[in-house]
Structures are given as structure tokens and as C-alpha cells.
Design a protein that fits this description.
Elements: H1 2-9, H2 13-21, H3 23-34, H4 38-52, H5 58-62, H6 72-79, E1 86-92, E2 101-106, E3 109-110, H7 122-131, E4 134-137, E5 146-149, E6 153-154, E7 161-165, E8 180-183, E9 186-197, E10 202-209, E11 212-216, E12 224-227, E13 236-243
Parallel strand pairs: 3-7
Antiparallel strand pairs: 1-2, 1-5, 1-6, 4-5, 7-13, 8-9, 9-10, 9-13, 10-11, 11-12
Helix pairs in contact: 2-3, 3-4
This protein binds zinc ion.
The site of zinc ion has 8 residues, from loops.
Length: 247
């Protein structure tokens, strides 16, 4: 649902997303969502995942699990993994280090809450921490050097939208969620969030349309509710930010 809102509001993103998901997929997805055919949309996601991954080998085919009522957060992020992939290079100061040069790729953005209260907004600080260069103790076996990490970069340039996995955050750390974020020198705007209902063990989504906050819950018959303020982010699962236009 959040993806649909993003694509409907930002026609320019269609082409960018088609590079990762295929033009046909994007067209089908939009057509089905326009027709409110949500079950078929789920089938489309699953079919897409199967053709990409699980069906590649017979073993995987046999072990295939289909979770139709599952985790929207995972469905959303796993299908888009390449879109948001980032890499960070690092070099150990110890010349005898067994893995001196390393280049690590991450496909999701899992930001951690800061250890101590930062001066600025905690989410912006956590994003900066995720991307910034740093010097840490080397974790290679038998090495006591320091590992010098370069700035983390997006593999395919700044994506049209980013999804932050927020599952490590406690609700008290999230009293304030910023509307704007600077990510790799680009401006991003808050578009929505996925929320987790602990009691019902189930995910829903909140997003903005024309400045109004809406809550979408597929399990409710009255599944789209207008909110008068941003949702209480007590059980926040992920945050979605879209790239601001350069204009
Ligand atoms: Zn080392």
C-alpha cells in the first residue's frame, strides 16, 4: 500500500523502480492496486519472489513456503533489496591482517538507536552513523589492528525511497520522528511507516496522501482510516522516506 501511494504521487519514480522490479511488474502492480485487487497483488509479489529466488533450484522449490498473510514489512523490503543496497569499504591498519581490505554490501538499512542521547534528532544521528566513515577495532581473528571504514555509499545512487528497519528501537526513543532527513547529501521526506500490532501479531501501514495521514489495515473491513495526526508510533516496524525533488 505504501509503495502504491509513493508511485501514485511520484510518476517520475516508475522508471527508476522498473529497473529493479521490471516494467511489467510495476505496470501490473499499479493496475491491480487501482482495481483494489489486493489478493492478486500479494500473488504478484509472491510469484515475483519465486521466480527470482526460491524456484531457482529444486531443493528450494520443495522447501517453498508461502505466507499470504505474512509480514508486509518483509515483503516490502525483501522484494526491493537491490534498490537500497549500500556498500562500505574498509582497510585494516595492521599489514598482516588476514582480511585487510574488505568491501561489505548491505541490502537493507537497519539503523541502530544511538548509545547516548545525541544533541540532534536521534533518527538523523543514527542515519549519519550508518553512513559515516569510522575507525573501529578490527574483528579479524588474531588481528589487533584498527579498521578504517570509508563513507558508505548507495550501490545504484540515491534511491527514490528508503526504508529503515526500526525494529531495534524502543518506543521511548521514538517520541519524535522527523519529517525531513538528510541521507547521503540528499533530502528525503517522511512518507509513511509500517506498524506492528503485538496483540494480533499483524502489520499495518500509515502514510500521507495530500497532507492527510491515513492508516491502512488489511484485516479490517473498514480498512482505510483517516487519522487526524501522525499515528502513534508505539510499535513502529519501519519508516519510509521518499527523495525530495531537486527543484
Ligand atoms: Zn585487521
Amino acid at each position: 500500500m505504501i509503495l502504491y501511494v509513493i508511485l501514485r504521487d511520484n510518476q517520475g519514480f516508475h522508471r527508476e523502480l522498473a529497473v529493479f522490479l521490471g516494467k511489467q511488474f510495476v505496470d501490473h502492480f499499479l493496475h491491480l492496486m487501482d482495481s483494489c485487487d489486493y489478493t492478486t497483488v500479494k500473488m504478484l509479489w509472491i510469484w515475483n519472489r519465486m521466480s527470482k529466488r526460491q524456484y531457482r533450484s529444486e531443493i528450494h522449490q520443495a522447501a517453498l513456503e508461502i505466507d499470504l498473510f505474512g509480514n508486509e514489512h518483509e515483503n516490502f523490503t525483501e522484494n526491493l533489496e537491490n534498490l537500497m543496497s549500500t556498500t562500505q569499504e574498509s582497510l585494516c591498519t595492521n599489514r598482516d591482517c588476514p582480511g585487510r581490505f574488505q568491501k561489505v554490501k548491505k541490502t537493507t538499512i537497519n539503523i541502530s538507536p544511538p548509545h547516548e542521547l545525541p544533541h540532534k534528532d536521534p533518527i538523523q544521528s543514527a542515519v549519519d552513523e550508518f553512513f559515516c566513515p569510522k575507525l573501529l577495532l578490527c574483528l579479524e581473528r588474531g588481528c589487533d589492528g584498527l579498521r578504517d571504514f570509508c563513507q558508505r555509499v548507495f550501490c545504484h545512487g540515491p534511491p527514490p525511497f528508503v526504508i529503515f528497519n526500526m525494529q531495534q528501537w524502543r518506543s521511548e526513543d521514538l517520541s519524535y520522528v522527523p519529517y525531513h532527513l538528510a541521507i547521503c547529501r540528499h533530502r528525503y521526506l517522511l512518507e509513511g511507516a509500517t506498524l506492528f500490532n503485538k496483540k494480533e501479531h499483524h502489520y499495518s501501514a500509515a502514510f500521507q496522501i495530500d497532507g492527510c495521514w491515513m492508516h491502512y489495515d488489511g484485516l479490517r473491513s473498514d480498512n482505510l482510516i483517516l487519522l487526524h495526526k501522525p499515528p502513534e508510533l508505539l510499535l513502529l516496524s519501519s519508516l519510509v522516506y521518499i527523495r525530495a525533488s531537486d527543484k
